[in-house]
Amino acid sequence: MSETHAHNGPKREAVLPTAALRALSRWVKRLTILRSTPRAHPTSGRATERDLRMMRRALELARTSAAADEVPVGAVVYRGDEIIAEAHNLREAVNDPTGHAELMAIRRAAERLKTWRLSDCSLAVTLEPCPMCAGAIVQARLGRLVYGATDPKAGAVHTLYNLCSDRRLNHSVEIIAGVLAEEAGDLLKAFFRRRRAEKKADRDDDRPPSSRVRIR
Ligand SMILES: [Zn+2]
Known about the structure:
216 residues; 5-stranded mixed beta sheet; 7 helices; 5 strands; binds zinc ion
């Protein structure tokens, strides 16, 4: 039997189409993944003088937050030069897991403008919003988002998710990232450093002198 005949044998005919089908199915799967992968917003631009001014105000609010023993994050909703609403974290004060600065500021702005649709407003927030707040930004149809430090543990705008620019959702936001990020990041670092030191001091106070085991 010649080699050509061997290639046309029954075994080859059964194997080749299966391999081809597998390759095709892998290719289709890859295409589907590519199509569903969110893409970054193309109009992400630079911060204006006004954005910087608003971020400075948000940083002031973050400092107020830290002084009240809340995680130092501040947020400002503005329309043109007008501040519509502002807030800092209130999670501890009101025992509200949703008490994040940007969510509070969005709620207050909607209340004040008597509309849930904030498409002509911008939001400046010192830290990259979490999934909950990024969701609220999309729900409020906010026109622009200006944020400071990135959040490696919960950031849902660029870091862990792309919720504000995911084209599968019905609204995407213009995003300006990293505005006065160092200042915002330093505030957070100092806050958590202080908190860790306080917790350690508390633990040391609680510990009986000769033993780590506490007897109640
Ligand atoms: Zn949040």
